[in-house]
Design brief:
The structure holds 2 protein chains of 2 kinds. Helices cover 32% and strands 26% of the residues of chain A. Chain A is an alpha/beta fold. A 6-stranded mixed β-sheet of chain A has the order 6-9-10-3-11-12, sandwiched between helices. A 6-stranded mixed β-sheet of chain A has the order 18-21-22-15-23-24, sandwiched between helices. Chain A has a 4-stranded antiparallel β-sheet with strand order 2-1-4-5, covered by helices on one side. Helices cover 72% and strands 1% of the residues of chain B. The chains are: A alpha/beta, B mainly alpha.
Chain lengths: 510, 392
């Protein structure tokens, strides 16, 4: 291949106070390929891409485009050189239209200053047609789905004639269906000669879409390999630096008495519509029950009702025989409910509190955290440091602010708090969302441990694989109803069909 | 299961009925003043009760905000209506002279319009400017000073704009680069302007005040409009031009799109190469200059003199107009007209009623309370207003 790579990074080094984020990293991108950048959280992927996009300046190293060295000092430079970036947290303005967001900073004008709306719409429509995107150019960003928003982000890059597109963890916010659509779009882009850098820590995605894979670990490049011949196990080892158990190792369940019982429960969503419609199930001691389903089928409302964060509209919830239907969150906790919430940053932790305070968040008012109504923060610190080492939380001590930890370590703190309270029922909502393989393995192991200790574990997840590998029983939630129940021996296809409404029970016919 | 009962399209919605109730409440008052001048107290009571009934009907159907608004408008309409039916017709005729009221409304609205449009640009770029009051005051004083020293009103306006821009620049540095709390910084500007103008006023003019022959901004008469409004100050005509230019700039130009993007999501603007800091500096300084021109209109346009703290809270009212007007030029202008109109009315009421008219001066604020409480619809501020931007 004589053609120089579209983009080449040589010996990129970037040091932040106390951290060597990138240590002589080499990376190259060929025309029309998808090059995956794989690594755990904090491995230096985002730093490397921020350097490429002009958000950081490297301490040393050089960037070449089509064989010529270039200097990228700002995102504007990067855009001019044909580099577009799709950020993990979308850079879109919710109140503006799709067209306005796409043309922003490169607006077609007439009479020197006036916005040429029809030209803008025409060019946006042109991009949409070339790459086969279905997005309404007049819609406001706040009214379209997350998947569509991501397409707008990609169109923003294409509108500026980018031939290198960086996607930062693009599937983290997508449902499996939307992710499949995204991959289809990426294949179209490839055909049009656009080169793609795909940042992720999900191994199955890498194997599905990438042509070549570069693995980073603690700021250093481990290897660059072609997809052909790569295996999940091999990539995981390269990422983490040790053998990783991708399959959860567990003994068959020996369930006991039902601990969590739910009878004909219905719950309304924020708009007052019925989101959970008469659900009945139980979770027994020493059993993991997994609830599978496509996002938005009532999972969040169900969890909120169980944990006392939302009023039940009807039915009954009881934990160990105690009626918790109208309980507050506090009463639910005191009755032995543990809750690993869906969103660790908004619900799991108080980001501005330190880890000791976060760990004492439920029981601050009880012995031994308080005595005679006086809190005893020194005791918290001592107790917290024990817990943090037990749960292998890295990146900070008891006095570290919660918000400064990486996502994986934040989740470990949440798990540590919930598990250490010794709950009889543990509700885990998407416990591994956005985590890397090492942290996923950790969380999974802890959940199985809880089961083996005789707790009832309710796992709600959008990741079918996670449900399949952890659960002792699988329930499928579709449009607020449980439409199917499976044993773990079932095939993924069968569960997948039920998730789309083709279940076994009588509702399925509709 | 969740189907809404079907409604024939020709029937008004509950919301429309509630808004009709609000209008009816205002109508109750209007009936009693010239030219209708209904003398029987039953007319306003009847209209007001209808308004209240419409409001109650809407509230019971869960259209709460407009419903309560209609009830409030009905009560206010009855109260004001009864008051004016008790007044003598001659008094009313003296107060309610529509053409005089209209031009007086424009006079009082103009300084507010300038400041409010300035404040709107500022907030649209993501910086809250509570210092409008101080910038107006600076404009009023330095406008008078410039007009006096250079003996020309044009130089007065230039000096006012420079002074207002200068104070705004201080606010911009504090709010943008130093990331100070924007409310605190703006309040500091207000006190600073009060002190600076007060000090120089005493130093330069002492006991005598500004000279009586201060050059004034001229009145102009434009074609047939002049025959409706009479002679109006140049600044009033300029405020109309400003209004249209501001609207076009904000919503029809690339510059406006960029300003709005910086105020909604500065990081998104930054990642596509728009200078967040540059845009915000420009918007804040512009707001200071416009506020100062509004202030200069008070000193060298309308009154022809300067006195200490002569803006007397108009900057804050302009800020309320920005919010009330939903961060839009025409909205802000309408709010400024409302405030200007009620000020004009309260001044005219002072003639027959004397001290009791002080009560009427509360009218604009009562209206603001009703409006800001969301009767007309929630106003949505720019998402990043008041939040300093930290570059990555």
């Amino acid at each position: 291949m004589d053609e120089p790579p579209v983009l080449e990074l040589r010996g990129i080094t970037k040091e932040f106070p106390g951290v060597l984020a990138n240590d002589h990293v080499d990376f190259d991108l060929r025309r029309g390929e998808v090059h995956a950048l794989l690594g755990e959280n904090g491995a230096g992927k985002s730093t490397l891409m921020s350097i490429l996009y002009g958000l950081y300046t490297p301490d040393s190293g050089e960037i070449l485009m089509n064989g010529k060295p270039v200097a990228i000092r700002s995102p504007k430079n990067a855009i001019e050189l044909g580099i577009g970036m799709v950020h993990q947290h979308f850079m879109l303005i919710p109140v503006m239209t799709v067209t306005e967001n796409i043309v922003l900073a490169n607006e077609p004008v007439y009479a020197a200053v006036l916005l040429d709306e029809s030209a803008a719409e025409k060019r946006v429509a042109e991009v949409a047609r070339t790459f086969n995107f279905a997005v309404d150019p007049h819609a406001r960003i706040q009214d379209i789905t997350v998947g569509q928003q991501q397409r707008v982000e990609i169109m923003k890059a294409l509108y500026c004639n980018a031939d290198v597109v960086i996607l930062d963890e693009p599937t983290a916010v997508l449902t499996p269906q939307e992710a499949a659509e995204l991959f289809e779009i990426l294949r179209t882009l490839k055909r049009e000669g656009i080169s793609i850098i795909f940042i992720t820590h999900k191994l199955n995605e890498v194997l599905e879409i990438a042509d070549r894979i570069t693995v980073l670990r603690r700021g250093k490049k481990v290897e660059t390999i072609p997809r052909i011949g790569a295996t999940e196990a091999g990539l995981a080892r390269a990422m983490v630096g040790r053998e990783v158990l991708l399959r959860v190792d567990k003994k068959p369940a020996q369930p006991g008495e039902p601990l969590l019982e739910i009878e004909d429960l219905s719950v309304h969503d924020d708009r007052g519509l019925e989101a959970v419609r008469g659900v009945t199930f139980d979770v027994r001691a020493a059993e993991i029950v997994g609830i599978a389903g496509v996002d938005g089928n009532g999972q969040s409302e169900l969890i909120d009702a169980l944990t006392g964060l939302r009023k039940a509209a009807g039915g009954k919830i009881s934990v160990g025989g105690q009626d918790l239907t109208h309980a507050s969150a506090r009463q639910a906790l005191d009755a032995g409910m543990g809750h690993i919430p869906e969103d660790r940053q908004r619900r799991g932790l108080v980001l501005d509190f330190n880890l000791a305070e976060n760990l004492a968040l439920h029981d601050y008012g009880k012995e031994p955290f308080s005595r005679f109504g006086w809190m005893n923060p020194r005791r918290w610190l001592r107790w917290a440091s024990g817990l943090l080492s037990e749960f292998d939380v890295r990146g900070g001590g008891p006095a570290t602010r919660g918000g400064s930890l990486s996502g994986g370590n934040q989740q470990k703190v949440v798990v540590a708090r919930e598990v250490s309270r010794d709950p009889s029922v543990l509700v885990a909502a998407q416990p591994t969302r956005g985590l890397d393989v090492g942290a996923i393995e950790f969380v999974h192991r802890r959940l199985v441990e809880q089961r083996d200790a005789g707790k009832a574990v309710l796992l709600v997840s959008l990741e079918l694989e996670e449900i399949m590998s952890l659960s002792d029983r699988i329930l499928v939630l579709y449009e607020g109803r449980i439409v199917a129940e499976f044993t773990p021996e079932v095939s993924e296809e069968e569960v997948g069909i039920a998730m789309l409404g083709g279940g076994r029970k009588e509702d399925a016919a509709a | 299961m969740n189907a809404v009962p079907a409604q024939p399209p020709w029937l008004p919605t509950t919301r429309q009925i509630a808004i009709g109730g609000i209008v009816l409440g205002l109508f109750a008052f209007w009936l009693t003043i010239p030219p209708v001048s209904a003398r029987s107290p039953w007319w306003p009571v009847f209209a007001g009760l209808c308004a209240i009934a419409a409001g109650i009907w809407a509230v019971t159907r869960d259209v709460r905000r407009p419903g309560w608004g209609a009830i409030a408008a009905g009560l206010v309409g009855i109260a004001l209506g009864l008051l004016s039916t008790r007044a003598s017709v001659s008094n009313l005729d003296q107060v309610v002279v529509w053409s005089a009221l209209l031009s007086s409304t424009l006079v009082w609205a103009t300084p507010l319009t300038f400041a409010a449009i300035g404040g709107m640009f500022c907030e649209r770029s993501g910086v809250v400017n509570i210092g409008l009051e101080g910038m107006m005051l600076a404009g009023a004083f330095f406008g008078a000073l410039g007009a006096d020293k250079f003996n020309s009103w044009e130089m007065g306006l230039v000096c006012a704009a420079i002074a207002g821009g200068g104070f705004a620049l201080v606010h911009a540095v504090m709010a943008i680069h130093l990331r100070a709390d924007q409310i605190v910084s703006g309040t500091a500007i207000n006190f600073l302007a009060l002190g600076v103008t007060g000090y120089f006023f005493i130093q330069i003019y002492g006991e005598n005040g500004t000279p009586g022959n201060l050059p004034r901004i001229p009145d102009v008469n434009i074609g047939f409009l002049g025959s409706v409004f009479g002679h109006l100050s140049l600044m009033i005509w300029l405020s109309f031009v400003l209004l249209i230019v501001a609207h076009i700039t904000l919503f029809k130009t690339a510059i406006g799109l960029r300003i709005r993007s910086v105020g909604e999501h500065p990081r998104a603007a930054d990642t596509v190469g728009i200078s967040v800091y540059g845009t915000r500096y420009a918007a804040v300084v512009l707001s200071g200059m416009l506020a100062a021109l509004g202030g200069a209109y008070l000193s060298i346009g309308y009154l022809g003199s300067f006195s200490e703290n002569m803006t007397a809270g108009r900057g804050f009212i302009a800020l309320a107009a920005v919010i009330f007007g939903n961060w839009r030029p025409f909205g802000a202008f309408a709010a400024a007209l409302l405030f200007g109109g009620s000020t004009a009315l309260s001044f005219r009421l002072a003639q027959p009623w004397g001290n009791a008219s002080v009560l009427f001066q509360a009218l604009p604020y009562v209206l603001t309370l009703i409006a800001v409480a969301g009767v007309i619809g929630r106003s949505v501020p720019p998402a990043a207003a008041g939040r300093p931007y930290v570059k990555q």
